[in-house]
Amino acid sequence: GSSALLREQILAGAPVHVFASADRHNMGMVEEFTVGNPVVFATNMLMVAVPSGNPGAVTGLEDFGRDDLYLGLCAPGVPCGDLALAALEAAGVETAKHSAETNARSLLVKTAEGELDASIVYVSDVRSEPLVEGIEIADQFNQSTEYPVAIVTDSDDVEGASSFVEFLLSRTAQSVMSDHGFSAP
After folding, report:
1. What is the mean pLDDT of the chain?
2. pTM here?
3. Nearest Cα to Cα of residue 119 among 74, 159, 153, 65
């Protein structure tokens, strides 16, 4: 689920051992329910995703202002949505008609299925979906996110939760995450 959805589940009392968020904002809203300070275990950058073959002939962020395309963003309040809007604003692009999805995965599926001409998701999302192609966003416009992780105070397995957090910070886990488009903190 999205970080915002997971945050709401924690606030509602869902039984959770560890919370890993796609941004610091959602983590900050549950910090009173976590043990110690959250630790960043990965970072990620945005990327434009297009269906295989790029039928909309999208070349970058500037195409998100085209009226002839159906585009996708995550909804405002969702980390990938907030970051996409910041990237578009930095590039001076006003978005044309677009879909507002609750998470990057649903956005990616719609792009892969050709329901969208382009979307803005994370590099790791593009790497995970063989039916999309990625278009890099220029460094001066791109946005990054940090993924913090913390143990939730109500965890009935603090030792197991601690082991999992330690694993996320290990070379092995960092190597796996790197292979899937994440960067080290």
Report:
1. 93
2. 0.86
3. 74
